Amino acid sequence: MLTIREDIPAGLLEAYPAELKSLLGGPTLIHLGGQAGEPVFISALLHGNEITGLLAIQALLKRYQSVPLPRAVSVFLGNVEAARVGKRLLPGQRDYNRIWMPGNGAEHDMAQAVLVEMRERGVFASVDVHNNTGKNPHYAIVAEAVESHLHFAALFSETVVYATCPDTTCTVAFSKLCPSVTLEAGLPGDPAGVERTVAFLDACLRIEDFSAVTPTPVNLFHTVAVVKISDCCSYGFGDEDVDVQLIADIDLLNFRELETGTRLARVRNTDSPCLDVRYVDGRQAYKDYFAVDRGYLQFTKPVMPAMLTTDRDIIALDCMCYLMERLTYSKLVGNSRDPR
Ligand SMILES: [Zn+2]
User: Fold this and answer.
1) How far away, in angstroms, is 128 Cα from ligand 1 center?
2) How many A from CA of 67 to the centre of ligand 1?
3) 94 CA → ligand 1 middle, Å
4) Which of 164, 173, 205, 245 could bond 71 through an S-S bridge, CB–CB 3.0 to 4.6 Å?
5) Fold topology of 3-217
C-alpha cells in the first residue's frame, strides 16, 4: 500500500488535502535530494484531518523550487484516504499513529517499510506534524530524554513533553534512529501553527550537527497517566442527560497547573465515576488523582492536563486527556539513562 517516489508529483504543492487520494493513490514516501545527503523525515496526515503538516511541507518545498534543498528531505503523506473526507481515520482503518511497532496488518507493514527505507538512508532527524482539537499551546513531544532530542524540540516550542506512551507512535519508532519530535501545531490549518512549523522545518534543514544546537530553556513536562471514559458510560458537555457531564470549555484547563479540588465533570453514579485512568505502565491511577465530591469529579492533587477537548469523537477515538507533571531538565536527562 506504500508508494515510494523520488520526485514531487505534479500538483502536489497546490493540492488540497482532499485531493491527495486521487493525486497519490495512497500513502506515499517522497525522497528529495539536498546538499547534505542524510534526510530529514517529515511526516504529515497520519491523522487525516490534521492538515498543518501538509500545508507546511507545501510552503517549505515552494521555497526551494529554484534553489537546492540544504539537506535531503523524505516526505511521508500518510492517511490520504481519511484526508479526503477530513477525518482522523476511516471506519475499519488502524490509527496511522499507532502502527509503528511490528504487528499484523497492511498498515503495520507499511510503517515498517518506511522505517527500513529511512534507516537505510541514514535518517538525520524525524518530524511528525499533528494538530489537536482543544485549546493547547504549540508544543513538541519527544520520546527520548537526551539532549539532542530536547534541543531539537526546543527549536519549535519552549513547551516540551516527554512521552513514551503509547509506544506505537511514529516519533517513538524514529527516536531509536535519530532525534525525533512530534509537533502539536494547534488547530488544523491555523495559520500561526503552519508558519511556526515551516520555520521549524526550514531550521531543521540547516542543522549540520545536533551537538552544535544551542540549548534553549524549555518548560518540560512528563506524561504520567492517560484518562479515558469507560466504554459503558455516556458523556457529554454541560447539562446533557449523560453519565459524565464534562464542564463546558474544558479545554481551557489544558497546560494549566491545576489545584487540588479542580472540578472536571458532574457524574451521575458517584460510586462508579466512569473513568479509566492508567499510569503509562498500565497500572490503575484513578485513586491517585481523582475523587467524587458531592457529585463532582475533581482532582485530589495538583496536576496539569493536556489534550482536553470539546470534540466528543476525539474522546472516543483517543482519550479524554493526558495528565502531566513538570520535570526539571536535569531530572529528565538523568532519568533517561535508563533505556525504555
Ligand atoms: Zn494527530
Assistant:
1) 9
2) 32
3) 13
4) 205
5) Aminopeptidase (3.40.630)
